[in-house]
Amino acid sequence: MDVGPEIRVVVVTYHSGEIIGPFLDTLEKATSRPVEVVIVDNSPQLDAGTRAAGDRERVELVRPGRNLGYGSAINRGARGAPGPWLVISNADIAFSPGALDELIAAAERWPRGGAFGPGITNPDGALYPSARNLPSLGRGIGHALLGWCWPTNPWTVSYRRERGAPREMSAGWLSGSCQLLRREAFEAVRGFDESYFMFMEDVDLGQRLGTAAWESVYVPSAVVEHLGGHSTKRSSRRMVLAHHRSMFRYLSRQYPGPARAPLRLLLGVGLGLRLLLVLAFAKDSAGARATRSAGLLPSSGPTAGSTAGR
Description:
Layout: E1 7-13, H1 17-28, E2 35-41, H2 48-54, E3 59-62, H3 70-78, E4 85-90, E5 93-95, H4 99-109, E6 113-121, E7 126-128, E8 131-132, H5 137-146, H6 154-160, E9 169-171, E10 173-174, E11 178-182, H7 183-188, H8 201-211, E12 215-226, H9 236-253, H10 261-281, E13 292-293
Helix pairs in contact: 1-2, 5-6, 9-10
C-alpha cells in the first residue's frame, strides 16, 4: 500500500539544470519518510537538467512562465500540500544523510516550533550564520554599515549570534535557503509576503511566525551544505539592488506612521549610501563573511544546553 507523502519539498530553480539533479540525489538520503518534490522553475526557458529532474518519480515541475521571485515561488509550490511538513530550499543545497529526519526529531522537542533551520556550511568550511536575531534599529544600522568591511563588529556578531559553539535554540529568524516548516504554522501566517521579490522575505516570515506565537528553531545537528549564490551570480548587480530595496521595505515597515517619516527617510539615505559603497567596493550585498568554522557543529542529536519549547 502506497503511503502518502509526509513531506513536501519545494525547491526554486533559475537556470539550475546542472545542480538540481545532485540536489535531488542528496535529498533521497536526507529522510526515510515519504517525500514529494515540487520544483518551481522561475527560468524564462526550461533547460535539459531541470526537465530531466521533473521526470523523476514523485517530482512535479511547475513553470509559472515568469520569474515570481523566491517567496512567491515557494507559496506557489506549497499550495495544497497534504502532509504536515514543508521543506523550502534553494537548488544549490546538499543534504547530509538523515538531515530532514533530524529536523523532524527536533520538531517533536519543540511543539510550538513553526520553522526549523539546519546548520548550514559553506564549501570553504565556514559555518554560515543562518539563525539570527530580528534586526533592531541599532543592530540593523551597525550591521548594514559595517558588516561588509568589519565582519566581527559587535553589532554584526550580536545580530548573527556568532558567539560560542552552535546549539539548538530559538531564533528571531532562519535562513530561507533551507528550512523545515510545520505546514500548520506556514499556512497560519499565509506563507511568504509576496511583496518581497528576493531577500528579507525570510526575516519577515520569522517575525510574523513569532507574532503568531510560533518559534523559529535552529537545529545545528542537522547539516546541509550551501554551494551559494548559484542563481544570483548571473545578475549580481541586480541582486544587490534587490537586496537593498528589500532591506528598506522591511526596516521602514517597522516604523510606520507620519511621526516616524523622518526616521524612514534617514533609513533610506543610509541604505542608499551603503548601496553605493557595496557597488563600488564589495563583491556582493551579503556584507559580512562568516566568522565561525563548520567544525564547531555537533555530529547528531540535541546539543548540550539546548532548551526545548514548552
